[in-house]
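Protein: Transketolase C-terminal domain-containing protein
Species: Trifolium subterraneum
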Amino acid sequence: MELLAIVDITTPNLPRLSSVMFLVAIPRSLKEAKGLLLSCIRDPNPIVFFEPKWLYRLAVEEVPEDDYMTPLSEAEVIRQGCDITLVGWGAQLSIMEQACLDAEKISHEAPVTGGFGAEISASNLERCFSRI
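Structure follows.
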């Protein structure tokens, strides 16, 4: 399973920002917040930096005192794999990491076609394909 963290994106959820092509930085941890903020300050282009409040309320992490920058416009591979790729940013990533751990515990043994898992997959595809 592969989990990618997108640390700066142009998203359709922010139509005014994405139409003028601002970079948007959304950290997933305190350590990354410091590195991204320093990168945003030093970058010559305008960047919108989102500061999720939950980072300061819930996160417990050692943040180095030294000066470092987190690369902009570059995805971070959090977990390498080959079966599925999950892409997310910000608060989603901790939920996605937990989903990866839970998925490792799930086992489905069935024929290639006509199995229970295939039926669940087909039902999901019928109902959700247009939302993908």
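Remarks: Strands lie at 2-5, 8-9, 23-25, 47-49, 76-79, 85-88.
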